[in-house]
Amino acid sequence: MEIFSSKEPIGHKEGFAIAALGWILAAGFGALPFLFAGTFPSFIDAYFESMSGFTTTGATVLTLIEGNPYAILFWRDFIQWLGGMGIIVLVVAILPALGAGGMQLFKSEVPGPEPDRLRPRIKETAKLLWAVYILFSVLQVACLYFTGMTLFDALTHMFGTMPTGGFTPRNLSVGAYDNPTFENIIIVFMFIAGANFTLHYKALHGNPKSLFKDKEFLFYGGVILFSILAIATELRFYIYNSIFTALRYASFQVVSIATTTGFVTADYDTWPAFSKSVLLILMFI
Length: 285
Description:
This protein is mainly alpha-helical.
């Protein structure tokens, strides 16, 4: 307890060091169920899968996903959901002993631009962001479940959507369902998950105009809309006979890639060069 009783504040270096150590330890813990279940032959493979989940990277060493026990698939996606808002942000929310140093951990964990304080105390801000994260998570599960997806699949796809990580219990990702309703729901929540959660909080608390006054959000939405229209136009002339079919697949892949989620519904490697170039650019944005 010496670290918490010290009067020295946690600085930038200490904040980043604690965050890095937190991920290393979390990934080690997350690898244990994979090892106990015999999912991977070595600790390195299990650790890789766990680290990929916690950091929402989305890379995997699994070749066949659907052949694994439901418990393992649930755990694999759940750790990605935990990593979405950051384990350390969760710790800051529940460990007031960190005091002012919690801001350094918060800054080192929340992705994207400089996070805004929604409350004077950073612990309260972390709690509010987690509340928004959970709210959207519950809404997505409800939307998927009540439109026909099984509860397990709805949960696990939410676990891959909200952290924009892309883990899925299906070998063919979301494309396995070939269901436009599921795809549209996931598109909406991928778009939400890719935006600044402080803006979502403000919008939910009576200030929806803040979304349309934020330059980052407007750029984010504008790039996605332009990319969808550009790709859909090319797909209509070279791949699909219907503009609606072209819009369906273009919309899903653009939002999935722009938000770094990684879900797929189409083999975009077969798309024309221009469409693939736009998707490549979105990966960098």
